[in-house]
Design goal:
This protein is an all-alpha fold. Helix content is 80%, strand content 0%.
Length: 240
């Protein structure tokens, strides 16, 4: 097309028809501008497509990470619930001064058993490096920020506090049990003395509340993950 205009322009110059030459010169300029605009538009479209592909890739990685978090959270809920149940059983046994039987050894150990939450944050760290605006959905972006910057930090703060308390409890309970095999079974040095041990009774009472509280926060975290997974699925399906 540009060669066509150039040929006409040369003919007009040769024929010395200035007005027509000017008209065709303007037309040629307009054509060049349109070509540039089309090229820019295609370039912008390609850039948007690349960003969208990058976004979807990151969202899929986040989904995998959240599914891993969810599995870990469910495991923690089960462990904390089990420990709280053991504490409650022991409190009932102690308050009623029930006779010792070796099935209690499991509960003595399980009451002291601890678990740690481990989560994957690498996709979110990648998002922070690339810029949060990479995710177009405002609700999803804000929800991710709340989950990682608030909820996860809060859960780890609880865990760290609980871990310090249980580390201290293990030190105190060395004298009460023949061993601290809290992952298996623990036999009391003197069951009769343990029934009257005020420290141990108060520790069991505290632990029931602490375990139930931590279980509750894990359940809330699990609910947030379910909502995030739903939002992620919606965005990922849009690209299909």
């Amino acid at each position: 097309m540009i060669k066509f205009f150039r040929r006409i322009r040369q003919n007009l110059i040769t024929e010395n028809i200035f007005s027509k030459y000017l008209l065709y010169a303007i037309g040629e300029i307009v054509l060049v501008v349109i070509g540039i605009l089309i090229a820019l538009s295609l370039n912008n479209w390609n850039e948007k497509q690349n960003l969208k592909a990058e976004e979807i890739k990151l969202l899929k990685e986040m989904k995998v990470a959240l599914l891993s978090d969810k599995a870990d959270i469910i495991s923690n809920i089960e462990e904390h619930s089990s420990a709280a149940k053991s504490c409650a059983i022991l409190l009932t046994v102690i308050s009623n001064k029930l006779p010792y039987n070796d099935s209690l050894d499991f509960h003595f150990a399980n009451a002291l058993n601890t678990t740690k939450f481990s989560q994957i944050s690498s996709p979110y760290e990648t998002l922070k490096i690339k810029g949060p605006d990479l995710i177009e959905n405002d609700s999803l972006r804000l929800f991710l920020n709340d989950y990682y910057d608030n909820s996860i930090r809060y859960q780890f703060a609880i865990q760290n506090s609980s871990q310090r308390a249980f580390d201290a409890a293990k030190e105190r309970q060395f004298e009460l049990f023949t061993s601290l095999r809290f992952w298996d079974k623990m036999k009391p040095v003197s069951y009769e003395e343990l029934l009257e041990n005020k420290y141990y009774i108060s520790w069991l009472t505290y632990t029931v509340g602490e375990r139930n509280w931590e279980t509750s926060t894990f359940r809330k975290l699990n609910e947030k993950i379910d909502r995030l997974l739903n939002l992620l699925d919606i965005e990922i399906k849009k690209s299909n």
